[in-house]
Amino acid sequence: MDSQQEPPDPARISNDVTDDGAFASVRDGYDAVYDALAGSATFNRIWRSHAYNGEFPVEFAHIGFLTLGEANRMLAAVQVGAGDTLVDVACGGGGPGLWAAQQAGAMLVGVDPSAAGIGAARERARDVGLDARSAFRAGNIRAHRAHRRAR
Ligand SMILES: C[S@@+](CC[C@H](N)C(=O)[O-])C[C@H]1O[C@@H](n2cnc3c(N)ncnc32)[C@H](O)[C@@H]1O
């Protein structure tokens, strides 16, 4: 697919779509996940040690499979520094995006359809002292692109 091409309109694929274009069942499912994660130290420990070898810093723990080595290679590839802004689409609880912003000295904008994920990301930003350098908003990649075009 041409990288400049817009992704297909989700409304044409399914009627399970929110006003800003995310799948409602996905958003609701992740809301439940992020709410449950806050109270499950055991799940967090098991995920961290098995999904990414326990090597990502615990204060930036996440629910993906990104290892610290992969994150370092991505950060080197994008070449961001102080004064730059990183955008983390599908940021969830904000772990990898905040880690990257801290490493690079950059600003972070995180976008995710899950309100619970956004809430967790804001709390984490405060915990790691990055709240002044980060902003999180509910939405998805389509809404984010439309917002940038409108500016
Ligand atoms: C596996 S989680 C990863 C979250 C985070 N990046 C991390 O590493 O912990 C996938 C995330 O994608 C988000 N997501 C699902 N549909 C999306 C969409 N259309 N636009 C942006 N994010 C979406 C979910 O809400 C969820 O937070």
Question: What report would you give on this structure?
Answer:
Helix content is 46%, strand content 11%. The protein is mainly alpha-helical and 151 residues long. The chain has one domain: Vaccinia Virus protein VP39 (Rossmann fold, 3-Layer(aba) Sandwich), CATH 3.40.50. The chain has a three-stranded parallel sheet with strand order 1-2-3, covered by helices on one side. Strand 1, helix 4 and strand 2 form a beta-alpha-beta unit. Helix 1 runs parallel beside helix 5. The model has no long low-confidence stretch (mean pLDDT 88). The protein binds S-adenosylmethionine (SAM). S-adenosylmethionine binds next to helix 1 and helix 4.
Helix content: 40-55%
Q: Give the percentage of residues in beta strands.
A: 5-15%
The small-molecule ligands in this entry are: S-adenosylmethionine
CA radius of gyration: 16 Å
